[in-house]
Design goal:
The protein has about 260 residues and is an alpha/beta fold. The chain has helices at about 10-20, 35-45, 55-60, 70-85, 100-115, 125-135, 150-155, 170-175, 180-190, 240-250; strands at about 1-5, 30-35, 50, 65-70, 90, 115-120, 140-150, 160-165, 195-200, 210-215, 220-225, 230, 235. The protein contains ten helices and 13 strands.
């Protein structure tokens, strides 16, 4: 499996280290596309993956799958081109789909191109339960409570405080680098307008904590995940990078677990 990475940041670096450095996937990252030439050339030299600054040249390579590991703004610019070139796609910046029309457009394009779009679970769990619960329209309520340190949110605070309470749509709009999980939950569950989100800044914690609550005809769900941040970036959870790695590991497997 030939893998391409869009991005040269913390998640992209972690994936190149795991895939090319530690051979954690039945495949290899053969190319990296990005704007940071210093980091791109460093990854290229250390892990023998060609570095590109021209997206079209990158997408002309014999890539089986491309991992987007950038920002919401950059993802909006690049992901359509990936699908147009008939490459399978893993989207890391799931907040890009707060525009439902853009998601529908990309899905239609993927269907016509015969490609697959993968949305990794990121820093949370329970997505299989939500998808099963909504299968017959019986999912009634979904709420996410995210508790993060000031460093993780890129702000200063000396006491615990609720800094946001509203819909997943507004959460993604106001905190695009911190609550990809809200968008993921919304897509798996009852939608971006109906999914409720609370964000709490807490200087007493070091781990990012996400608590998911759901109710419906199936019963009730309560799940809490306490994530270690990536050592190189306190704003990103290690589990988010691991979930992308898991998609790559399981992509061509004969056995599929869960939805």
């Amino acid at each position: 499996m030939n893998i391409g990475i869009i991005g040269t940041g913390n998640i992209a670096t972690y994936l190149v280290e795991q895939v090319n450095g530690k051979q954690m996937v039945n495949g290899r990252i053969i190319a990296v596309f990005g704007r940071n030439q210093e980091m791109g050339h460093q990854l290229s030299e250390q892990f023998r993956a060609d570095f590109y600054t021209d997206l079209q040249a990158f997408l002309k390579l014999p890539l089986d799958i491309v991992v987007e590991a950038t920002t919401v703004e950059a993802a909006r610019l690049y992901v359509k081109d990936v699908v147009t070139h008939k490459k399978d796609l893993i989207v890391s910046s799931i907040g890009v789909f707060k525009d439902a029309g853009f998601l529908d457009e990309l899905k239609t394009l993927a269907e016509s191109s015969g490609t697959q779009i993968y949305l990794p679970s990121g820093a949370i769990g329970g997505l299989d339960v939500l998808q099963s619960a909504k299968a017959a329209g019986g999912l009634k309520r979904v709420q996410l409570t995210t508790r993060k340190s000031p460093a993780s949110l890129g702000m200063e605070a000396d006491k615990e405080n609720v800094i946001f309470e509203g819909s997943a749509y507004d959460a993604v709009e106001q905190f695009p680098k911190n609550v990809n999980v809200a968008m993921t939950l919304a897509l798996a569950g009852i939608g971006i307008e109906k999914t409720a989100v609370r964000i709490i800044v807490d200087p007493a914690i070091e781990q990012n904590t996400h608590t998911i609550e759901a109710e419906g005809d199936f019963g009730k769900l309560q799940l809490q995940v306490e994530n270690h941040p990536m050592p190189s970036n306190p704003k990103a959870s290690l589990l988010a990078a691991l979930s992308i790695l898991a998609v790559l590991q399981n992509k061509d497997g004969a056995l599929k677990i869960g939805n």
